[in-house]
């Protein structure tokens, strides 16, 4: 791949606002078109969809490489809205899953293209980038090894699901950091527009519920997911264990305020919105990350508008992240950067410790799943392979929570991303955790050196999402959680290194070593 495009070399001067708006409009429009065409191609025929999406992404990656991060964000956030339109015409679940896999084809095509571009001469000329590219390649190889192990030891389909979820954060970071290192990327307008669309969608869905979803077959999309759960015995199992009787779609979409029994007698039940991606927890993370990123850019209106939606969805982890970002934004000043960062870590530790302590005394599923992950990791530190254990694996279908509560641990790791990753990848999962820790340290260092609040967002995002991952699978495995965060962190780091390279090129040779 040459990744040439028509962009001018990196510079330090800001572009005119109208140029930024025009570029953002181009990127967002292009992203929505790529996603719509990709899903439509899959609806025609799955092999045709794979080929067409690959070619589309290949063209866009070479013609407008700086727009690829926006394409990925749009694919994660808005793809299923397009899939819903085709739901009545999709004959079977395999085709339905294929349509929903469009965003992964887009991501992996872009990842392969940018991975090939990592060996270009101008990339090797960026010394700050080399170690990160090498680490991402090592991690990629590790994940592929455990994917092969999972295929041998478990089901190929389960291995594919967890391969996709595990490699997505890495691919997002690699694409973003390389693209931003080579080309100017300005996400301010794009993030504002995409976030505004997501917030408006949430309020409309909350107000008109099923009537709104019925306009574009969103109700049929949800019904297809529920039908699959009925076929696998999920609701029959829930009836035996909790006494919950499934009567229809409204039962699934209605929950207590903030998804907790504490408010049962105080507040009425609410419609749990799923957003344009049709997954409540992932949607909550998207709102939280976009809001936090905008907060550190000085925009307050959209984050404040998103907060009630987060409370309705009831994702405690996503809400915790946004509340920490709000506190940090209010408290932070250049003179107390160290204290602010220490406070973020302290809050994350207290949050996780309190959640584990409460869950351990109440038989919480997440704590039982974490306990199983630690137990099985100690029994087999080498790991089982991707696809064994976890909420999305067929190995968890027959798990008995009553037995798990009696024994103090689940039979296999579930609900906890950390527990599942320890079980699947063993000691090599520490490389993944170390990668996140190194990114947090890099964000801290860049914040201290530059004062750029983009790096404060990166630190807050990585620390809080990692804390949530101790008891929540979506924190690591949802594309709109860790993957989305690392995409934005990669853009910030790549932009910084590109600007440093531009400064070195302008300075006399004897001063370059000091930069």
TrEMBL record:
Superkingdom per UniProt: Bacteria
Segments crossing the lipid bilayer: 24-45, 52-78, 98-119, 131-149, 161-183, 278-296, 302-327, 339-360, 421-441, 453-471, 477-497
Assigned keywords, A-Z: Membrane, Transmembrane, Transmembrane helix
Designated name of the protein: O-antigen ligase domain-containing protein
Organism: Mesorhizobium waimense
